[in-house]
Design goal:
mainly beta, 16-stranded antiparallel beta barrel, 6% helix, globular
């Protein structure tokens, strides 16, 4: 930790003397209490803080940054979670945003929780790979690859790649999500381990309120598809399809969000396990009790209904303090 800080500060000082120096500091308080009593969700309480720093040089549309991201879970040893290095190159203009390296996933990709669960922000805060986004006057599209593990004698090769985007006209919009995860075997085959492939697709159409409206909200609906294959185990790909809808409304600092999935259960490599049930609904009551430029604080009270029979609840507290230039 000390050596990493020394290197970052030394390089940052060198950069500051040569070109424009910019930086970002992040503090995040995490509270997540999961009162689950079912076969899909794991009951647990996650409490901790995340600290992240990145700094570097920028010249016109180009930027290089170095830093780190560290999660300390309350009640654990200091080294229970490893330090995640942040090091990337970025090109950015009005239409293109391109990053290569290890960089924060926050505000980059926003997939349905069925495909990528929210605990990734806790335990895998960085994308390690490539991200690109192109923006038009009538929409945007992005794509990424997240390299999770290189194959060795004992480690499995793993990566996730996907794309998402939106096309809009007035208050109407159309969203697309595509996700692929590949899990290979180690170079030395282990009995019982097989190559796994996960594919997913979601297409949603919706309508949202005007930007200057006092009440902010949207309604969108469509379908969710998943394909799962475990070679030598399943007979090809196992396909699942379901109806998927989401509604959101916000007035001042209060909001409500409801998600509905009905059909076949889905299996994604890093998806929320609740969506493995055939029918699932989630409603979040949200209180944004601090909403300033540098400080955001939010409390969520979530209710999970599984197969219209079981009710579970969850409380989430998030405090984010971010500043820099």
């Amino acid at each position: 930790m000390k050596n990493l800080l020394f290197i970052i500060l030394g390089v940052s000082a060198l950069f500051a003397n040569s070109q424009n120096f910019d930086y970002r500091v992040l503090f995040e308080g995490i509270g997540d209490n999961r009162e689950y009593f079912n076969d899909y969700g794991f009951p647990q309480t996650i409490l901790g803080t995340r600290t992240a720093f990145e700094g570097g040089i920028s010249s016109e549309n180009h930027k290089i940054r170095l830093g780190f991201s560290y999660l300390y879970e309350f009640g654990s040893e200091v080294d229970a979670q490893k330090i995640n290095p942040t090091i990337y190159y970025q090109f950015n203009n009005q239409q293109i945003d391109f990053l290569f390296g290890s960089f924060s996933r926050r505000d980059k990709i926003n997939f349905p929780l069925a495909m990528l669960t929210d605990t990734l922000l806790y335990y895998r805060p960085n994308i390690e790979g490539i991200y690109g986004k192109y923006t038009w006057n009538w929409g945007w599209q992005n794509a990424f690859i997240d390299w999770l593990s290189r194959q060795t004698d004992v480690n499995r090769e793993m990566f996730t790649t996907g794309l998402s985007g939106e096309i809009y006209q007035g208050n109407f919009f159309f969203e697309n999500f595509l996700l692929i995860t590949h899990v290979a075997t180690p170079a030395i085959r282990i009995p019982g381990q097989h190559i796994k492939d996960y594919l997913g697709l979601s297409l949603l159409a919706g309508i949202r309120t005007n930007e200057n409206s006092i009440f902010k909200g949207y309604l969108k609906a469509g379908f969710l598809n998943s394909e799962h294959r475990e070679r030598s185990v399943t007979d090809g790909f196992e396909s699942s399809n379901s109806f998927f809808a989401e509604a959101y409304g916000k007035w001042k600092n209060l909001a409500i969000k409801t998600v509905l999935h009905s059909g076949n259960g889905h299996r994604f490599a890093f998806g929320d396990h609740f969506y493995r049930a055939g029918n699932y609904a989630r409603t979040d009551l949200i209180w944004n009790f601090v909403n300033q430029e540098k400080v955001k604080a939010r409390f969520n009270w979530s209710f999970h209904i599984i197969d219209w029979q079981e009710l579970n609840n969850q409380q989430q507290l998030s405090i984010i303090y971010s500043f820099g230039k």
